[in-house]
């Protein structure tokens, strides 16, 4: 019985998404880069979680807005762009040349599979 419990707690760790040095713990609602904690707002966390859970998939600004804010989008470009910029400033070594959070011009954003 103890082994089962121990294995169960290990399985719970599968709620951690790791891409390169970027790590998102869905249970603890924490983000780390290179093992160091990163403070994100709830909205920033929601955007990052959406993109990390679907690494490689491109989301339009409207899709991001509707999934994270849970409401229909009405000209959300600036709102989403500001949050993306803030996330990049917190997780990227050089936000102007992002390693993780990429723009796909004319389409939207994605987390790069590394």
From TrEMBL:
PROSITE patterns: OMPR_PHOB
InterPro entries in the cross-refs: OmpR/PhoB-type_DNA-bd, Sig_transdc_resp-reg_C-effctor, WalR-like, WH-like_DNA-bd_sf
GO CC field: cytosol; protein-DNA complex
Entry GO MF terms: phosphorelay response regulator activity; transcription cis-regulatory region binding
CDD domains per record: trans_reg_C (cd00383)
Keyword Nucleus on entry: no
SMART domains, per database record: Trans_reg_C (SM00862)
GO BP of this protein: regulation of DNA-templated transcription
Domain OmpR/PhoB-type: 14-113
UniProt xrefs under PANTHER family: REGULATOR OF RPOS, RESPONSE REGULATOR SAER
Protein name per its UniProtKB record: Sensory transduction protein regX3
Organism (species): bioreactor metagenome
């Amino acid at each position: 019985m103890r082994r089962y419990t121990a294995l169960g707690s290990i399985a719970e760790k599968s709620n951690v998404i790791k891409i390169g040095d970027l790590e998102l713990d869905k249970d603890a609602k924490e983000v780390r880069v290179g093992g160091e904690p990163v403070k994100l707002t709830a909205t920033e966390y929601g955007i990052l979680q959406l993109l990390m859970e679907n690494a490689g998939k491109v989301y339009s600004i409207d899709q991001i807005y509707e999934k994270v804010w849970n409401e229909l989008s009405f000209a959300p470009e600036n709102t989403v762009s500001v949050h993306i910029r803030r996330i990049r400033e917190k997780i990227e070594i050089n936000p102007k040349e992002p390693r993780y959070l990429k723009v796909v011009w004319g389409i939207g954003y994605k987390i790069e599979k590394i």
